[in-house]
Design goal:
The protein is mainly α.
């Protein structure tokens, strides 16, 4: 119990120091309020938006876009990642194209996707998909290819089908790396949705931040950033819980 309390306090130490520095710098005038609003102003902005329901609505809109784009990225990233990791022929067939597409910065895709899909939901979902797909894909490939080749040979000796090889040998070995990709993809999804909403949107937390910036309403800008951080952390925790449920052997090792 004491160890858990100390760990919790260590986790809170840096955020607490940042908040103290923030408070001190604003009340002493060391940093102008136009650059860094006071904590009370940000708190008041968050409270007002929560009371009106605007903040929850903005976050829910952005989360719904993430779930769509990220969900598609997970499905296609896992499917292509497993196929490319298990088969050198599939890897050579798709690898060159995927490597070329991966070099294109995400910001370069936004105008093209807006031209193709307009400023509706489809363009935001497409941006999120492209941003997170390669994180899932590359980590899945790496996880599959890291599997012990001796185990694979044993599986082939026992005439296991490709599906049995994947389920019994490749998947347990690759799961830790796959979840690394899922977490990275989720993190990148937040960056992508905010960027897309800032460039071409009329709703969502990114739109709200950009709109507040144009009006020099910096407390609202900071409240949006805090909302993104909280929502992102909660989604990351949820994914970590799924990972622990899927990999009980990892949990046992960490306790050991």
């Amino acid at each position: 119990m004491r160890t858990k309390t100390l760990n919790f306090l260590e986790t809170l130490a840096l955020p607490a120091l940042i908040l103290l520095a923030w408070h001190w710098s604003t009340i002493t005038g060391a940093v102008p309020s136009i650059v860094l609003p006071t904590l009370s102003a940000v708190g008041s902005s968050i409270g007002g938006q929560l009371a009106s329901g605007r903040l929850q609505a903005d976050v829910l809109i952005s989360v719904s876009r993430i779930l769509k784009g990220y969900g598609l990225a997970v499905v296609f990233g896992l499917a292509f990642g497993v196929a490319m990791g298990m088969s050198a022929h599939v890897d050579r067939f798709f690898g060159g194209l995927f490597r070329a597409i991966r070099q294109i910065p995400m910001v370069a895709w936004v105008p093209l996707l807006v031209m193709w899909f307009g400023i509706g939901e489809e363009s935001k979902v497409a941006v999120i998909f492209l941003a997170s797909f390669f994180q899932v894909l590359l980590n899945t490939i790496e996880g599959i290819q890291r599997c012990d080749k001796r185990l694979v040979e044993v599986g082939k000796m026992y005439r296991l089908s490709p599906w049995q090889l994947f389920r019994k040998i490749y998947l347990p070995s690759a799961l830790p790396q796959i979840f690394v990709g899922l977490k990275l993809g989720l993190s990148v999804s937040w960056m992508a949705v905010v960027a897309a909403e800032m460039i071409a949107a009329s709703s969502g937390i990114g739109f709200r931040i950009n709109d507040a910036r144009a009006l020099l309403d910096y407390p609202t800008v900071f409240s949006g950033m805090i909302a993104i951080a909280v929502a992102g952390v909660l989604m990351d925790i949820a994914l970590s819980l799924v990972a622990r449920a899927c990999m009980p052997w990892e949990r046992g090792e960490s306790h050991g």
